[in-house]
Amino acid sequence: MTTDREGLENLPALLDLAAFEKTSSGLFRPLGALPGWLKLDDPAQEIDLADRYPLLELFFSECAEVFEAGTPPRMDSDVWEEKDANGSTIYLQASAMKLGRRSLIAIELLPRERYTYQQLYHDFQLAEEEAARLKLVAERATRAKSDFLANMSHEIRTPLNSIIGMADVLSSSPLTPEQQKYVEVFQRNGVGLLNLINDILDLSKVESGKVELESTPFDLSEVILRAQEVVDGRARAKGLELRQHIAPGVPMYLIGDPNRLRQVMINLLGNSIKFTDKGHLEVRVVQDPEDERPGSLRFGVSDTGIGIPEDKLAAVFESFTQADSSTTRKYGGTGLGLTISRQLVELMGGRIWVESEVGKGSTFFFTAKLGVQADQSARTIREGAQVSTGSIDRLADGLRILVADDAEDNRFLILSYLNQAKCSIEIAVNGQEAAEKFRTGGFDVVLMDVEMPVLDGYGAVREIRRYEKEKGIPATPVVALTAHAFADMADKSREAGFTAHLTKPIRKATLLQALGGYSGKSGAAGEAVPARPVETPPPAPSQAQGSTDEFLVRVEQGMEDVVPGYLEKRRKDVETYRQALGSSDFDTLRMLGHKMKGTGTGYGLPVLTEIGDAIERAALKKDTAGATAAVDRLAGYVEKVKLQYAQ
Amino acid sequence: MLIKKKICMLGYYGVGKTSLVSQFVNNMFSDKYQTTVGVKIDKKVVQVEGQEVTLMLWDVAGEEDNTPVKISHVKDASGYLLVLDGRRRKTLEAALSIQQRVETEVGKVPFLLLANKNDERADWEVNDADLAELANRKWTVMETSAKTGERVEEAFLTLTADMLKCREKDAEDDD
Lengths: 647, 175
Known about the structure:
The complex is a heterodimer of chains A (647) and B (175).
Chain A: H1 2-14, E1 17-22, E2 28-31, H2 49-52, H3 55-68, E3 74-83, E4 89-99, E5 102-110, H4 116-171, H5 177-207, E6 216-219, H6 220-237, E7 241-246, E8 253-256, H7 258-274, E9 280-287, E10 296-303, H8 325-331, H9 337-347, E11 352-357, E12 361-369, E13 371-372, E14 400-404, H10 408-418, E15 424-428, H11 431-439, E16 445-449, H12 457-471, E17 478-482, H13 487-496, E18 500-503, H14 508-519, E19 542-543, E20 552-555, H15 563-582, H16 586-599, H17 606-620, H18 624-640, E21 642-645
Parallel strand pairs in A: 7-9, 14-15, 14-16, 16-17, 17-18, 20-21
Antiparallel strand pairs in A: 1-2, 1-5, 3-4, 4-5, 6-8, 8-13, 9-10, 10-12, 11-12, 19-20
Chain B: E1 3-11, H1 17-26, E2 39-48, E3 51-60, E4 79-85, H2 89-105, E5 111-116, H3 128-136, E6 141-143, H4 152-174
């Protein structure tokens, strides 16, 4: 019997455990040496294990039940955490054993490493959940921002519509040159503000994943041409030549999103013009050298401008970043165009980058993966013809138009746009009235505001469609007018039954071209007007097309009566300038220069704006030599300039 | 008379059970997550309704998807705190499931639901409607923060008071 007992006494020394035997008092007597992690005041004394380790209280009562039943001979407790004598966390587990009548308890120190995995696993899982949560938070914030911007844009666009529209109307009424100058300031800044809003909206749409690219057939050369048309005025004002080159073998008839492709090109071209003072801009299209598949193309827009320092090349595609913050002050722009372009190019499965040399120019490259039309001899339908400004009023001739808008300003604007057209107009001030008037019949087209009291535009157009179906009459074109710029609004209007969708602010030319589609005068009938028409600068006379001769100026129709008088006054000014120079009267020089700077371009004489600017700046610096040189240039220019009139 | 009461901390892992106990017992909080292995038992003596109560706080390792929490710990407990992390919706589902298992395996035991991490309320996935729906079940729901200590002591004391009331009722029933 003694040997049996001795064997048990030695056990704790062999394993890292504390062993106890239950005594008749219900307490526990240590067996053999106790491990270091278990400190007892008096190792010889019996202890109340359940009091020391509360977890064992429940364990013992469970053991009692099990051992009562006779099986099994051994039972393990749950693992529990304790602090050792040094305050470190240790993990313990108890085993109860029944040896005949003897009840033994072993408390084992579990190796810490056994639980390291649990910590690692939880750390990993929690980090992963945190990452997912942060992503969600970021997405939610982007969505909120995008919704906010959409609402804001609606609020801004509505009054802006009235401002730009009325400025257009005012601009075509008889004005003194001084007044004309003020109106131009309205127009220029209004359009600038509108472009900024559009850029911010576009960026927010792309960032929040709301932009889906179309997949329609288009003609590559046409897209390039139309992109160049948009920037043509600005390029010519600076005397820059626009070139395009499509490499042999590049398929001309493609499938993709022509509007977005053109938008990227307009952004890149506009950017290049801003930073180029002389030379040319070129759009080159080649097969992507890194992707042989047909339709994988590489576009390059190169200029002969100021170039970008190497350390700024990567930053130009970031939001609100230009190579130099002083750039914004000097050249203007929001710094969003390239960011939007990058996002759009990525949507087209491509990438965008820039190569540049300071002083020599930059080339912006981008690639895109486009579809190729099966029949390369096919011609795609032109999306609506460009119409010269002179004939624009004729586009709505003969139309019977129903205009439904609750805002008086907007109705007045539309009426002003149409006052030169030979059309008849009926007015409704809400959707209900519009639907009722429509039933009286005889309208060729309906212009309908979307948000109106009593019955909104959607309700009214549904009412109209229902009526037409009931009477078996063909659908009348109903054009939605809305300040909402998002593409899904266009979808919503189409679903409701609108034929097309115009986004406010609506320019006169845009409205008349849209109406032209329904009078059969522009060949665009039945086609939906793009949700966001490309804004063109207000029409202004310009240098003769295709001519690089700065002394040959083509006078726009309608300006024949005013341009010669304006030029004559500038000729007379030369003497005033000279007198002011003689008496060092810089105030007069500055004032005259400033006036000419503000009016020259408006009369189709951008050179005068340039000279006026030079005079003004020289006068500010009291730079007699600079001012004299500029006045000499003016004298030479007004003598040599020739006006050319349209047929 | 010496009153000793056992309270179990139950819930999904990482919801803050250990931190709630640590805040309640030692007024301490650590941002570093420390997993609980098995059970960790703490003790705190409190005064509730003029009585001194020794609380034995059984901080039970959190539930995992493949490792359900051991309900038998609640067998001799007077009450439990069911804890969820307001930022993680799945911890609400785990809490509901644990409560149901306790009721099935042990019976009705006083408990409180603690929606923890109230200091990060802006990031919560569990919303007011969820909490209202729990309150509709006549559950006592408290939004706590082990980090700031918000409503932590109140939670333990409220549960203790509930447990004492329950005990009185049991005693009456026994009579």
